[in-house]
Input
Amino acid sequence: MIHDSSQTVGRLGKKLRIPPTTIHNRIRKLRNEGVILKYTVELDYKKLERPIMAYIGITINYNVEGKKIRQAEVAKKLKEIEGVMEVTILTGGLDIIMKVLAKDIGNLNDIVTEKLRNIDGVDKTQTMITLVQV
Output
């Protein structure tokens, strides 16, 4: 598997021993068929002054003060919080898990206690701080 998407199709063709036009056509076909959805980058979060990564598991209370709470609506509100990178709806013991990048522990505390827990429907949270990403 190739792990550097910044390579040119020419360099990739040399590595794989395939003509660059063939690679270009295959990439275009995968994009047109919706297999390739987007291109991403890997960032150094420390240089972006967000060195604390955490995953936060969330349990939803679906009946708050007579309101019908929807998982997707809660997920959209969570995604709007500064520092939230990913929000994933789950089955099982947790309803949602989100990936957060924080400036420091105080910032992570603010995200969890002041922002996250004030969203209607958020019942319980479980914060897991990442020690090392492999």
User: Anything to note?
Assistant: The domain at 1-42 is CATH 1.10.10 (Arc Repressor Mutant, subunit A).
